[in-house]
TrEMBL record:
InterPro entries: DUF1214, DUF1214_C_sf, DUF1254, DUF1254_sf
SUPFAM superfamilies found in the cross-reference section: VPA0735-like
Protein's name in the database: DUF1254 domain-containing protein
Keywords: Signal
UniProt keyword annotation of Ribosomal protein present: no
Stretch forming the signal peptide: 1-21
Pfam families assigned to the protein according to its UniProt record, in alphabetical order: DUF1214, DUF1254
Domain DUF1254 residues, every copy: 76-206
Start and end residues of each DUF1214 domain: 347-456
Keyword check for Signal: yes
Length: 473
């Protein structure tokens, strides 16, 4: 009975919401405008983030590599790396060196796009396709039994004819979609060569160019392109700016129509924006409030310890990656700390800022992590443990190792079958430990991050969680 009443009440509120939202003609006070602005800045932060990435991709003159490092392509095109990502990129926090991946932004308000999927054989692969909210709109990968061929991504208002040869159509809820293919590669030169024979068939292009024939490209031969954005020092490139946020918000919300129940939220925010456009003092106030919200609410979410589901030994995780819905807190936290995560069935993530004693991980100390015999992450794909600095980027080191896991073919097991990872800034004195060394910074805080690609049921249901990160005394 209680569930039915709550559902009925929710339905009533959804129907009533537009009738009670503030209109553009309503006189409003500065404190009220600040309250609405602060709230809107938080829940729309990920949408503006992706929208501004779209604007950056729109400036790409051709398919290439931005600064010679990152996939960069005009809208409705895709660019691919041909090896692991270089450690000095700053466009996307928490990059991985487990997969070869690409990126493209589809402007579905202009045209549907065709996605090419080559035959990956037994290699783990997944195409992450998310809307402006960073929610997944497609299931396309090895774990879904997806077949090689052509797929179509269309916007919410497209009513065209699906051409012959398209295996499946995925619909986006927004006019913008982000497409990120990933495929496994291990640390050997032999596997690097094998990958080249596969990735040439990965692609994305406007529907008008579809002819039923696979378009191949040698991704090792891409031009170096100049970044259209300014750097942000050691941290991620800034994509959301408090001083322009409310100027961009109307266009962003047009691209992403409200989900059921969001009508009043949208109307309230847009009413304040309209009022501020007519009142310079009010505009100054909401921009000021956006700056405060950025510093006080959004910025702390870079730290993994400030969000997620708590697990043993101070690890944390999320259960709704790329399926955030109206969980605004988790969506913004993930967008700030490690944007573009996969759905839980595709990749499950575990975050760590603290050692087993609850102290911040820091380069001044040495740590160990031991997976007991048979206790490595249970996956159908592969797993990795990556180390990031305080800004969530790779830490340069002499052996150029930024993660360990399935791809690390020389990881050593102890006599009892366990595997111990040595997390420290200096090379282990014991030669037997060096194969399992994950270099940390010589000073400063850092984080650890476990990815489980193709997680088994034990991971998805929470029966498996990571071991403690123990400080070496």
């Amino acid at each position: 009975m209680r569930t039915w009443l709550l559902s009925a009440l929710g339905a009533c509120l959804i129907m009533m919401a537009p009738l009670h939202a503030s209109s553009a003609q309503t006189r409003i006070t500065e404190p009220y405008a600040r309250m609405v602005a602060r709230d809107a800045y938080f829940w729309a932060w990920p949408l503006v983030n992706i929208y501004n990435r779209r604007k950056a991709f729109e400036q790409a003159p051709e398919v290439g590599l931005m600064n010679g490092v990152l996939p960069f392509a005009p809208l409705n095109r895709m660019s691919m790396l041909h090896d692991y990502i270089e450690p000095d990129q700053r466009w996307v926090a928490c990059p991985n060196q487990d997969t070869v991946y690409g990126a493209g932004i589809a402007a579905l308000d202009k045209t549907p796009v065709v996605i090419q999927v080559p035959d990956f054989g037994n290699r783990f692969w997944v195409y992450q396709i998310v809307d402006l909210r960073t929610d997944s709109i497609a299931e396309l990968g090895k774990m879904y039994g997806s077949k090689p061929g052509f797929y179509l991504i269309a916007g919410p208002n497209w009513k065209g004819t699906v051409p012959k040869g398209i295996q499946k159509v995925f619909r986006s809820t927004t006019g913008t979609a982000f497409v990120v293919p990933r495929l496994f590669q291990d640390d050997t030169e032999q596997d690097r060569r094998k990958v080249q024979a596969v990735i040439g068939g990965i692609g994305m292009y406007p529907l008008a160019e579809y002819d039923g024939k696979v378009k191949w490209r040698d991704w090792t031969k891409l031009p170096r392109l100049v970044s259209p954005t300014a750097g942000n020092g050691s941290g991620e490139t800034q994509w959301v700016f408090p001083d322009t946020f409310f100027d961009e918000l109307p266009a962003v919300l047009r691209d992403a129509p409200p989900m059921p129940g969001e009508e009043a939220r949208y109307a309230e925010a847009l009413a304040v924006v309209t009022a501020a456009q007519k009142d310079p003092a009010l505009k100054k106030a909401i921009v000021d409030e956006a700056g405060k919200a950025d510093a006080e609410v959004v910025r702390p979410l870079l730290q993994f310890q400030n969000f997620g589901l708590p697990l043993p030994y101070h690890w944390s995780t999320i259960d709704n990656g790329a399926a955030f819905g109206t969980d605004y807190f988790t969506r913004t936290a993930v967008a700030k700390s490690n944007i573009l995560v996969n759905k839980a069935r595709e990749t499950k993530y575990f975050y760590q800022d603290l050692d087993s004693g609850g102290q911040r991980l820091n380069g001044a100390n040495r740590y160990t992590m031991t997976f007991g015999a048979g206790q490595a992450p249970p996956v159908s794909g592969f797993w990795s443990l990556t180390l990031y600095d305080a800004d969530h980027f790779f830490v340069e080191n002499a052996i150029k190792r930024y993660s360990v896991g399935t791809k690390t073919r020389d990881l050593r097991k102890a006599a009892d079958g366990s595997v111990t990872i040595y997390v420290q800034p200096d090379k282990p004195a014991d030669p037997a430990q060096r194969a399992n060394w994950l270099p940390s910074p010589a000073k400063g805080d850092f984080s650890l991050y476990i990815r489980t690609y193709g997680p088994a049921r034990a991971i998805v249901q929470g029966a498996w969680t990571p071991p403690a990160v123990r400080k070496v005394q």
